[in-house]
Design a protein that fits this description.
This protein has 412 residues and is mainly α. Helix content is 55%, strand content 1%. A hairpin with a 2-residue loop joins strand 1 and strand 2. Helix 3 packs antiparallel against helix 4. It is globular, with a radius of gyration of 20 Å. The two termini are 14 Å apart.
Length: 412
């Protein structure tokens, strides 16, 4: 009973903190935007995202047109999809908008409705929450990245909706997503499913969603969380060779003794999105992706940080290596999502490493922003919707309320 009361209290605190932030946080800082390049950049990015939202509440790969970073690039899909919509919703949520407050409240509400409808229409069996296949973000992060990103978003929004009915709906859909994720976990504890170029980032999102959902008291996913933690500790001890074989730092190379860079960019045979086939830890052969996932997983709680202090120190030591930080050789969406994992981790540990990383990342992102307020990846995930959202999350990593809420949750 005490545990139940504490979960209710924590959920209420989380909602209150987010609500206060929406009223007094990012929005009220607009007065100082003229003197703050980060505020200017974030505001432009948010304005562009909201301007290209679909009438059905969703977002697609690139806001309706081809990326101008790679002229003539073929859009993998038309229309709007769940994964891109979930990433935009995260950007809105982490810059002060909630389901009840904020300048872009209507946009967030539309996004959540779009996502919930897809979850509710999906069958209970199977990992998918959408029947749309072949999107750019799926081909790069795995065919079920929609489910992982949705689960993470719903876990964060759990308990913050306008009324009891809406909260119950989010909770029910979150539990459906978590059940799908638990059933699909591979024997090694990961979700490195065939069909994506860098599936380790999907594993990262799946794990984070379980952690957040359990912290909110929405589920009991301890067994799955223990398994992915064990997996991560094991892979952290396995070196990943630098990519080789293709100009610009490519998909070849050996990962844990297994060749990668096969057809489709996946170590092992290429399969349909309906199959659950285990692949190597970082099929793209890029150390950044794998190591960033490990750093985020191993640093979540005070206990984790104490227990994994040596591994964390070893990983953070690599951040001074420009080749390691560059990842594939140029900055694409996979790099942006890996940087998010690193920022989440270093913010928890604090200190000089965090200040140095955040300062350098901020300067890099400000230089990369396009005139229209967007960011676009230079390889793989090039779509402006996902990359702009990730850039906004990175730029606001040091000023969002989520860390305080999550710390409270993990110490209950």
């Amino acid at each position: 009973m005490r545990s139940k009361r504490m979960r209710v209290l924590v959920t209420g605190i989380a909602a209150a903190v987010i609500g206060i932030y929406a009223e007094n946080g990012f929005s009220d800082e607009k007065d100082s935007a003229k003197d703050d390049p980060v505020q200017i950049a974030v505001a432009k990015g948010l304005q562009w995202l909201v301007s290209v939202q679909g009438k059905n509440g969703g977002w697609g790969q690139d806001g309706g047109e081809t990326s101008y970073v790679r002229q003539g690039e073929r859009l993998e899909s038309g229309g709007n999809d769940v994964a891109n919509t979930a990433v935009v919703a995260e950007a809105l949520l982490h810059t002060g908008t909630t389901a009840t407050r904020g300048e872009y409240r209507a946009a967030l509400q539309g996004a959540v409705e779009f996502i919930l409808e897809h979850v509710e229409q999906s069958p209970a069996e199977g990992l998918a929450v959408t029947d749309l296949q072949g999107t750019q973000i799926q081909r790069k992060l795995g065919p079920y990245i929609d489910t992982f990103l949705t689960s993470k978003l719903l876990a964060e929004m759990d308990g913050t909706m306008p009324d009891v009915k809406a909260n119950a709906r989010v909770r029910q859909d979150l539990q459906k997503c978590v059940a799908k994720i638990e059933k699909a976990q591979l024997k090694d504890g990961s979700w490195n499913l065939s069909g994506g170029w860098a599936p380790i980032l999907g594993t990262s999102m799946a794990s984070q969603s379980l952690f957040l959902a359990q912290a909110k008291g929405a589920v009991n996913a301890q067994m799955a969380m223990d398994r992915v933690r064990t997996y991560t500790v094991a892979t952290a001890a396995m070196p990943v060779a630098p990519p080789s074989g293709v100009a610009g730092g490519a998909m070849g190379g050996i990962i844990g003794g297994v060749p990668s860079g096969t057809a489709g960019g996946v170590g092992g045979r290429v399969t349909s999105a309906s199959e659950s086939v285990e692949v190597t830890a970082a099929a793209a052969g890029v150390p950044l992706y794998k190591t960033a996932q490990e750093l985020e997983q191993l640093s979540r709680t005070d206990e984790d940080r104490q227990k994994n202090a040596k591994q964390i120190k070893d990983i953070t030591g690599q951040l001074s290596d420009a080749r390691f930080v560059t990842g594939f050789g140029s900055i694409g969406g996979e790099e942006f999502f890996s940087y998010l994992n690193i920022s989440e981790s270093l913010r928890r540990t604090g200190g000089a490493e965090w200040k140095k990383w955040n300062g350098e990342m901020t300067a890099k992102l400000l230089k990369l922003q396009n005139e229209d307020g967007t960011w676009a990846g230079h390889h793989c995930i090039t779509g402006r919707v996902a990359v702009t959202s990730a850039a906004i999350l990175l730029l606001t990593a040091d000023r969002e309320p989520a860390p305080a809420v999550q710390t409270t949750l993990t110490k209950r």
